[in-house]
Design brief:
Shape: globular
Strand content: 15-25%
CATH architecture of the largest domain: 3-Layer(aba) Sandwich
CATH class of the largest domain: Alpha Beta
Order of helices and strands: HHHHHHHHHHHHEHEHEHEHEEHEHEE
Bound molecules: S-adenosylmethionine
Structural class: alpha/beta
CATH superfamily of the largest domain: Vaccinia Virus protein VP39
Number of helices: 18
Distance between the termini: 47 Å
Amino acid sequence: MNRKQRRANQKASQVPAVTAAGDDPVTLHAMGVEAFRAGQLQAAARLIGRAIAAHAQMPDFHYNLAIVLRAQGKLTEAAASYHRAIALKPDYGDAHNNLGNVWKALGERDKARACFERALVCNPDNADTYYNLGILSGDDGDTGAAARYFQKCMECDPQDGRGVHVLLAYLGKAGAPLHTSHAHILKLYDVRSRFWDNEDAYFGARLVANALREHAVPEKLNVLDIGCGTGLAGALVRPLARRLDGVDLSPAMLEKARAKSVYDRLDQADALLVMSQRANSYDAILGAAVLIHFGDLTPIFRAARNCLRPNGLFVFTLFSLAGEENFAVSANYRLAQSGCFAHSNRYVRQLAKDCGLAVDALRNVVHEHDPEGNPIPGLLAVLRAP
Ligand SMILES: C[S@@+](CC[C@H](N)C(=O)[O-])C[C@H]1O[C@@H](n2cnc3c(N)ncnc32)[C@H](O)[C@@H]1O
């Protein structure tokens, strides 16, 4: 079973917490959307289905049912539902766009392209559609067209919520950005927060927690968890910590971390900023799978050195980069789409030295498995302040 199927099964087994809604179609539909947001896919499909049974002429009902069906992996039914939405509202740009994604998932690339082009006719400023056409063109090996679509996407979305700057760098059409755009981080982890804690193919948090246990002196530590996410690493290291602080950009991830009640303090902020502001404050800084969103690590290493107490540890994971380069946008197209970078072992060693940090350990690890179960190589680093 692959990662997506495991996730769908986990959701399906959850008992929906839904109250009776009567037969009012608007209320039923709104409750269905709410259930979907809460991850209760079966309840969402049932409620929106009842809304449609009560009033079949609402394009939005069919559109949202299609979104739920797609999330359940019922692609053919999702396509049919989008078709019903479009039949009721032929210029429904978002429905054409999403239908394109369903056709793509079904392997119908020509139909997908036709839907995306139709979506652009309905809405010529749709950043999502430019993004989808860029990905489709990139998959087809037409990097020129992909770059043009990504540029258009960027024009419609200057904050770069879809991470196309990284993709342009991946295609060799732009220099790599300094880090993943914050808008992309927010969008990405708003979605990932829903299933992050059920992810059993990701090992970064455990790797970092075990390395801290192995390398730290056996006394209570003041720990800062940067990019703490939902608190996976925090929960593991809590017994070692006198004080445990976390920082993350994503409010959705932080909400899950807060619910675990393992941190003394949580801040929604840029990790770099927080480290720069808290000089000489921590015995350990943990960074499980967060520096994967930075290219040049110089500002991060300097800030970590500033933030650590004497002998303090900086423990983190990266995706590993083979070859001569210091760092690059990930050479894996899927990881590049998630705004990820990769770094070389040699670079980490050299930069540590330049920033006055000793290398206690720098190991090749399996960072995670991809959705097909293939291992993705990473680096686990333990650096020590003087
Ligand atoms: C792959 S998740 C890892 C989460 C957690 N460390 C774990 O191991 O489960 C990366 C996290 O880094 C956060 N992040 C990315 N860039 C950040 C930044 N500049 N400052 C703070 N958090 C950041 C994201 O919001 C996300 O929660």
